[in-house]
Write a structure and sequence with these properties.
alpha/beta
Length: 523
């Protein structure tokens, strides 16, 4: 047991219910409810027998005089060879008109097939056998696209494959088409950039017993070279001050204890020495460096499922999770760390839970915009800050944008549908943010990007999104403290009912009763 065992044992005892309930991180994220929109496009209806995947698109912020370079991959899904295979760009004369039509454009249900871009045709393969793939690179001067000289817009760009499918008798035809977006802001200062608040949650499923043993070694994997938590740090590497970090004290405590040496116990009771101490120390050192000039807030200990706790009559544990090891992040990172932020696992909460959070001293709660829709509907994206009633202490909802929040993370594969590539997803996110700006070009509204607690960042693509926040003319970084200090949005909001899908994802009440009995025994 490490030299921190007495402190750790006290923390585990004080927050036993919170630790147990964090297994809801996995269960609650499985049921999307309104928190997960249909934001991620799948293969479009007109993808064809040689679908196109876009794997690179530069520059991140296009400007007059530059060169547009698109890289990608084509795959022959036909049962016969495709000969004379080529690719070329198409550009729609009609730009994106509203955020709401973006999914339809990607799905091929909103037109925007576009016009072929002269000089963009690129030969790929004389013959491509069934099941084989080939890569391509298209480079054209941006000036050749004849985009508006002064008007900002989000253009719809497509890459099509062309070829001759053997035995179909049609000759050379379009064999695939994939649409993407190109934000175009040719003149500086035309719009007021959208303030973008990036919330980066750092948490993980609990893994320790009360005596300091680790039940598994998943944290060693997550802080390893290509682990989930490492990729999150990678995403902020180029612009760490553009991020508002939200840290789970339980995660930092576990990683700190790993640096002293630790043991992992198997289901049979056998103990083995964990080998992730070095990676844990390196990860903590890197987090300390990245957060030096950034904003850091401590969430509740072990990310408890606050709604399930409240429904089980364990309100005291909600308050306890908000105070347990609250000062640890500040001590570990060597800098002031704010607290008082609640992040329900699905960014959903019912009225009773919100009342308990308010009474527990929580100052802000992260909720999805899908749970707080404008009422009446407005033709623009409202600012992501809402006051939740006036009873007792004030409680502010930090309202995340479901579409962009989902696009900032790697998607889970659903069935056999091909998810978008990281670059396709990145370009959609850029389009969503740029269109938010173009909705009201002179009226900035804060867009909150808050992935789920167990999110997986795309390395370079998510990093590009974070970097673009401070480098593009359509957005600028915002901090959580600034959002909370400013007046809330004056757009009236409705409160949707707590969905059945969220209730079904909660930990079972029988389990929570067991947690309650164990907490009483500990007390």
């Amino acid at each position: 047991m490490s030299r921190r065992a007495p402190r750790r044992l006290a923390a585990v005892a004080a927050a036993a219910a919170a630790l147990a309930l964090t297994s809801g991180l996995a269960s609650s994220s499985a049921a999307a409810g309104p928190a997960t929109p249909s934001a991620l496009a799948v293969t479009a209806a007109d993808s064809g027998v040689v679908p196109v995947s876009i794997t690179g698109l530069t520059p991140l912020v296009p400007a007059p005089g530059g060169t547009l370079t698109v890289t990608g991959r084509v795959t022959n899904t036909a049962s016969t060879a495709v000969t004379g295979l080529a690719v070329r760009l198409r550009l729609s004369p009609t730009p994106v008109r509203t955020r709401g039509e973006i999914p339809g454009i990607l799905a091929g249900t909103a037109g925007r097939t576009g016009v072929a871009v002269q000089g963009s045709r690129t030969e790929v393969a004389a013959s491509l056998a069934p099941g084989r793939s080939a890569t391509f690179t298209i480079a054209v001067p941006l000036d050749d696209l004849r985009l508006p000289e002064s008007r900002p817009e989000v253009a719809v760009l497509a890459v099509e494959s062309l070829g001759d499918v053997a035995d179909d008798g049609q000759g050379p035809v379009q064999t695939g088409l994939t649409r993407t977006f190109l934000p175009w802001f040719p003149v500086a200062g035309q719009v007021q950039p959208t303030p973008v608040l990036w919330l980066f949650p750092l948490t993980s499923a609990p893994s320790r017993t009360a005596d300091g043993l680790f039940l598994d070694d998943h944290l060693a994997t997550e802080v390893g070279e290509k682990g989930r938590l490492t990729r999150i740090l990678d995403a902020a590497e180029d612009a760490p001050s553009s991020v508002s970090w939200v840290v789970d004290p339980a995660l930092l405590q576990s990683l700190q204890d790993m640096t002293d040496g630790y043991e992992v116990v198997s289901t049979t009771g056998a103990r083995t020495k964990g080998d992730g101490g070095g990676d844990a120390a390196a990860w903590l050192a890197r987090l300390t460096r990245l957060t030096t000039g950034a904003e850091v807030t401590a969430a509740a200990y072990a990310s408890p499922d606050v709604v399930a706790l409240h429904r089980a009559g364990l309100d005291v544990d909600i308050a306890l999770a908000g105070t347990t090891e609250r000062d640890l992040p500040s001590r570990l990172l060597g800098r002031p760390v704010e607290s008082g932020l609640s992040w329900p696992p699905q960014q959903l909460a019912d009225d009773g839970t919100l009342d308990v959070l308010r009474a527990s001293g929580v100052r802000a709660v992260v909720l999805t915009a899908a749970a707080l829709p404008p009422n009446p509907v407005v033709p623009y994206t409202p600012s992501g800050s809402v006051d939740l009633g006036s009873g007792g202490s004030p409680l502010r909802a930090v309202v995340s944008d479901p579409a962009v929040s989902a696009l900032s993370a790697a998607p889970a594969r659903v069935g056999n549908a091909a998810p978008p590539t990281p670059i396709e997803q990145r370009q959609q996110a850029l389009a969503e943010i740029a269109m938010t700006t173009l909705e009201l070009p002179r009226t900035p509204r804060t867009l909150v990007i808050a992935p789920t607690g167990t999110w997986r960042a795309y390395g370079a693509a998510t990093r590009d999104l974070v970097t673009s926040t401070s480098s593009s003319p359509w957005s600028r970084p915002e901090q959580l403290s600034a959002l909370l200090a400013a007046p809330a949005s004056d757009v009236p909001r409705a409160r949707t009912d707590y969905p059945d899908s969220a209730r079904a994802a909660e930990l079972p009440q029988a389990y929570l009763r067991l947690v309650g009995r164990e907490r009483t025994a500990l007390a």
